[in-house]
Amino acid sequence: MLHAAIARPQKVVALIGVATAVDSLVTQFNQLPVEAKKEIEMKGVWSMPSKYSEEGFYRIQYSVIKEAEHYCLLHSPIPVNCPIRLLHGMKDDIVPWHTSMQVADRVVSTDVDVILRKNSDHRMKEKADIQLLVYTIDDLIDKLSTVVK
User: What does the pLDDT read at residue 149?
Assistant: First the structure.
């Protein structure tokens, strides 16, 4: 979503992120031990563990990881200046909720809210999570409609 907003700022009027995974693939790869990273580079594929895959892992080509490094955003200010709402579950064991805090800190927009759900996980699939998402969308639509009038 951030790359789309950077590429087409005139077309993007607001953003809502759910468990926003900015730089996540590269961050997870870089946290591996040096030996594991060397083995992945040699084999050309990373079997990244995931409880959401039937096999228990996703096969990620090493070339994808290397390309993803060129798209990392958290290393400098992120030139997005529209309203942003970031929803994140504090029990997310895939993308730490701190990532949403980092995004909020890095974007140049001053209209940024981070909403943390204490008992929600990565998928934020519970009824209360969906209600929060709908409310957040409605609230942004209201805000943008009053700006347009």
Answer: 54
